[in-house]
Amino acid sequence: MKVHHLFIVSEHMGFPADKLVELGFTEGSSRVHPGQGTQNRKFYFGNCYIEILWADNQDDLRSERVINSGLSDRINYRQTGFAPYGVCLEHDKQTDAFFQDAHLYFPTYFPDDWSIAVRHDVNHKSFPWFFRLPFKERYAPNDEPVDHDNGVKEITQIVFTLNNDDYAAWSAHRYNDSILQFESGSYPHLLLEFDGGKSQRTEYLEELHLTLTW
Q: Which residues are CB-contacts of 22 (< 8 A; sequence separation ≥ 6)?
């Protein structure tokens, strides 16, 4: 399964993204999600992108359509115990079975007949919020900046920490991917490795439960 992009929840209106900029990551575009109650700041790379996501409107987050999608549980992870991460997988045949019984979330910022397929794994709270966009175009950065001052090019590992029970449940799926991986331990935690970690630089961003290595 190929990763299109992923999000990391921020509790402080996206300000942790400033630390990424300080570390030499070039920021791309940002957007507000009308009717969803969220806003983001984004960073693009050669093979996928990451977004720092935060609550913009709690009334929208409490709407029935957003609550049913499970996204509100991710944004308010301190109260709910769900992992504060989301992973958008490429829309291709490899992910058809994975999203076969998915919930269809119809965001107000999409055309009426477009839906996001969501796996809200309510029994596996340390899983990220897996979702898939309605269109099948492969990831492309388009006009977004992908040249970073620290020299990074691509994400080469995405490693989520799951609790022991959830790790056992995930292992039963036997999905393999060269980038997306899971390990057992204390959670939440996410490791992002860039370019194989060849520069031997490591930074931990506590508020995002995020380790960066490049």
A: none
